[in-house]
Amino acid sequence: MIRSIKQTISETLNYSGRSKRSDYWYYLVFMLLSIVIISTIVLFIGLTPEDPLFTQVSFFTGTLLIIPNIALTVRRAHDFGVTGWIALPIFVIGFIGTYQETLGILDWAGLALSTVVGLMPGHKGPNKYGAAPA
Fold first, then answer.
1. Element (H or E) spanning 43, and its range?
2. 126 domain residue, yes or no
């Protein structure tokens, strides 16, 4: 698990090649835990969601975590043989959904697309995006 997370972070700007399903899910769990831990610390020190510093910390944390996730999603798409551009609607939908007050159709659509990317089995052998991930 730690190896997958380290590899994902080290390949933050790598939009070629392929990544395994386990790498995808391990990084998503890492992102979720990181957000929960950082939010808990920020709330514990007394900042409220209305505080500008809370907003800045949230934005900075989200940005640091999402950039490796974009590259990972592109590589996951390559693993099952489709263009990495499939990641674009996932992140656009997620970004727009962030500014809604309640869970809306965009949130559910983004969640569904992310789940599909995470569950699709990769090609067993090489494909046009490279060799199967080890």
1. helix 21-44
2. no
